[in-house]
Write a structure and sequence with these properties.
Blueprint (H helix, E strand, L loop, with lengths): L12 H15 L12 H22 L3 H27 L13 H4 L2 H8 L7 H26 L5 H15 L10
Helix pairs in contact: 2-3, 2-6, 2-7, 3-6
Length: 181
């Protein structure tokens, strides 16, 4: 493999901050450092999770299986994992690691949350995908509210409510509809 080191410009700042926060959190079990506490990353995570749900819904409705599965697995699951990581960290004063790609989730999540988390995985049946999507939303909301309280940042309830209404609307659209809102 060939690697090229390039100077990042201001357009990549958000991406770099997200990556840095992720790496800091991963290494926080080995180094004495506080993970960000101002809520900026938290709100960004909530926004990305909620906003990108519409792409999954549209993909399901349009019968675009690869697109909807990839949007869920690569975008939504990534944001869900970040929130699960933060929730686990907040429950243990950020002194434990949830493991790379959540390998210790079963160990650190209460059984109820672990059972919900498992239900976010499904096959390629659209009804099952809808159920896993709404389960992911419920789990994200529960954990994000706790993390937000820990940070002193209010969870974006209005955006959540609006997105849930949108998802239900798309789910109930007839197959012969010509528009999605």
């Amino acid at each position: 493999m060939n690697y090229k080191i390039m100077k990042a410009d201001s357009k990549e700042m958000d991406l770099l901050q997200n990556l840095l926060q992720f790496y800091i959190y991963d290494f926080s079990e080995f180094i004495d450092i506080d993970v960000e506490e101002n809520g900026e990353q938290y709100l960004s995570n909530c926004n990305n999770f909620l906003w990108c749900l519409q792409n999954v819904a549209k993909g399901i409705w349009r019968d675009e299986l690869p697109y909807s599965k990839q949007m869920f697995e690569l975008v939504i699951r990534s944001e869900l994992h970040q929130m699960v990581d933060w929730w686990i960290g907040s429950q243990h004063n950020f002194k434990i690691s949830p493991g790379k790609f959540g390998k210790y989730y079963k160990k650190h999540l209460p059984k109820r949350f672990w059972e919900m988390y498992k239900k976010t995985y499904c096959d390629s049946e659209y009804d099952h995908m809808w159920e896993s999507l709404f389960t992911a939303c419920e789990l994200f909301r529960i954990l994000a509210v706790d993390v937000g309280e820990e940070l002193g940042v209010e969870y974006p309830y209005i955006e959540d409510k609006n997105m849930m209404m949108y998802l239900e609307g798309v789910r109930n659209l007839p197959k012969d509809a010509t528009d999605i809102y």
